[in-house]
Design goal:
By secondary structure, the protein is an alpha/beta fold. The chain has 2 domains: 6-63, Orthogonal Bundle (DNA polymerase, domain 1), CATH 1.10.150.530; 67-342, Aldolase class I (TIM Barrel). The chain has 11 helices and 14 strands. The protein has helices at residues 13-22, 28-38, 52-61, 133-147, 166-177, 197-205, 221-227, 236-250, 268-278, 303-315, 336-342; strands at 6-7, 62-63, 67-74, 80-86, 91-99, 102-106, 110-112, 127-130, 153-156, 189-193, 211-215, 254-260, 283-289, 320-322. The strands form 3 sheets. A 10-stranded mixed beta sheet has the order 3-4-5-6-9-10-11-12-13-14. The protein starts with 5 loop residues before the first strand and ends with a helix. Bound molecules: iron/sulfur cluster. Iron/sulfur cluster (SF4) binds next to loops.
Length: 344
């Protein structure tokens, strides 16, 4: 069971003001407290501008960090992968990816996932529960405590389908973006979905303008259904319709994730079909040579095949990039570290 104590991470200025009023503290304490919460520090006792009696009470009656770092694996390329424990004993993963003058934290939105994509280690675990907004935000704070600086970007690409945990994800986005929170620009926040059409439409209407990434992986409904069960519920026509709406309402370029799998979705016909269905959509395609999981049928394509596929898409008029593999020596693909820890 989750502890019933008040959790500080995930709360906004208004909620902390209510808490301080409940504690009988002057109103300026809320601002002091929110600054400490998201600075962050490791423990309440380090919030040195708060009086000792208030720190004591906060320690007794609240939980500051809902996550604790269990292990950090460091890759030779600077990538760090975190296994975090939650208050109820569940585990999640987050990844820190430094790159030149920017850095990205990849966070989880659920424990496990019910979407069942066949190429994904998390999908094979099944669904356990949604994360709270505090648990989502705290993943970024745990990384900051370890690396000593704020990331420039945060991507919801770890364990879970963010749009299946809509309200907690939205709340966490507000905290990550708020000037009193982590103050990360809305354009630097990316939500990645496997294609939950109602969630995409809802997000379009929020008027937030965050970056949307969509796992497409095939431009053919039948083929897509074989690797992504969600495609049996929302077909490509419905998905593309929602993406056009998102781009039109937000003016943001959508990232189309395409995991290239040798012999499955890397033919000239696959490339042609992809250019056809994306014509007219404000988007760019991110090609990802698939990272095969144990027991999966997917095979990694050769570099030359990836380059060929990229050139076919470019010739078709698409904007394309190839995602560099990061942290291969530390099992950075999502779900792998938790699987090893829990023996699943
Ligand atoms: S790829 Fe994403 S949506 Fe699909 S099973 Fe894995 S975590 Fe879930």
């Amino acid at each position: 069971m989750m502890a019933s104590k008040n959790v500080l991470v995930g709360q906004g200025l208004e909620e902390l003001a209510e808490l301080m009023a409940e504690f009988g503290e002057p109103s300026y304490r809320a601002k002091q407290l929110v600054e400490w919460v998201y600075r962050p520090v490791a423990a309440i006792e380090q919030m040195s501008s708060l009086p000792l009696r208030l720190r004591d009470r906060l320690m007794r009656e609240t939980i500051y960090h809902p996550c604790s770092t269990v292990t950090v694996r460091r890759s030779q390329d600077g990538t760090r992968k975190y296994l975090l424990a939650l208050q109820d004993g569940e585990h999640i993963e987050s990844v820190y990816i430094p790159e030149n003058d920017r850095s990205t934290v990849c966070i989880s939105s659920q424990v496990g996932c019910q979407m069942g994509c066949t190429f994904c280690a998390t999908g094979g675990m099944g669904f356990v529960r949604n994360l709270t907004a505090g648990e989502i935000v705290d993943q970024v704070l745990q990384v900051i405590l370890d690396v000593g600086r704020r990331p420039s970007n945060v991507v919801f690409m770890g364990m879970g389908e963010p749009l299946a945990n809509y309200s907690a994800v939205l709340r966490s986005i507000k905290v990550l973006n708020a000037p009193w929170g982590l103050n990360i620009g809305i354009r630097q926040l990316t939500v990645s979905t496997c294609g939950l059409v109602p969630g995409i439409r809802k997000l379009a209407q929020e008027g937030l303008g965050l970056t949307l990434a969509v796992s497409l992986h095939s431009a053919d409904d039948e083929k897509r259904s074989r690797i992504m069960p969600i495609a049996r519920i929302y077909n490509l026509e419905e998905l593309l319709d929602a993406l056009h709406e998102y781009a039109a309402r937000t003016g943001r370029r959508i990232t189309i994730e395409y995991a290239l799998m040798d012999g499955f979705n890397d033919s000239p016909e696959d490339a042609h079909r992809l250019t056809e269905i994306l014509r007219g959509l404000l988007c760019h395609v991110n090609l990802i040579p698939v990272n095969p999981i144990p027991g999966g049928f997917q095979k990694k394509p050769r570099d030359s095949q990836v380059a060929r596929f990229e050139s076919w898409l470019r010739r078709g008029g698409l904007v394309v990039s190839i995602r560099k593999e990061r942290g291969a020596d530390i099992e950075a693909a999502c779900g792998q570290l938790r699987g090893r820890w829990e023996g699943v």
